[in-house]
Amino acid sequence: MSVLPDPEPLYELIEALTQLPGVGKRTARRMAYYLLQNDREGALAIQKAIESALQDLQHCKMCNSFTQEEICATCLSPRRDNTILCVVETAADQNMIEASHSYHGLYYVLMGKLSPLEGMGADTLGFKRLLQRVFDYPVKEVILATNFTAEGETTAHYLGQVLKEHGIKVSRIARGVPSGSELEYVDAGTIAWALTERRSD
Ligand SMILES: [Zn+2]
């Protein structure tokens, strides 16, 4: 912690950096000093990249992931099996599953999870859009690949109930993914196994 009061712009920068996952005050301060002292060009490049990403990326109309087009390349690909839909919490999770090279269906990215305490309910998460997506296309199976955390499990349970009520076959990735863990941090082999061993009840 600094004993001197921070100049306002420095304080603002540190506060902004602490918004990033896993970045506490102390790391944020180190990053801020680094960018200002050693890498002003890098800082400007980050600024530009953030601006252009915010401006040019939108949510894919089909899978809700990030894309520059209305519909992303994955959803448009003729090589994907459009009868299977894998539901994940984040684009990072989607990326991990892709990296495992074990899945060739399509995705739906929730961009979150049910978390009543944080004001994330079914409406906020856009479950209706997911349902619409399932009904609009010939989906035969929905694989729930939300994380094995309490909130991820709640989300999977809720979604499973709703989808089954509508007569959709639902499966859950296998438990090989350690309890309490997030897909993002699981190795590709385990993800591949969890997908192959998925269960429907
Ligand atoms: Zn898409």
TrEMBL record:
Domain Toprim: 83-178
Zinc finger (C4-type): 60-75
Domain of life: Bacteria
SUPFAM superfamilies to which the protein is assigned, alphabetical: Recombination protein RecR
Keyword Metal-binding: yes
Stored NCBIfam families: recR
PANTHER family, A to Z: RECOMBINATION PROTEIN RECR (PTHR30446:SF0)
Family note: Belongs to the RecR family.
Name assigned to this protein: Recombination protein RecR
Classification of source organism: Bacteria, Pseudomonadati, Pseudomonadota, Betaproteobacteria, Burkholderiales
Gene symbol of the encoding locus: recR
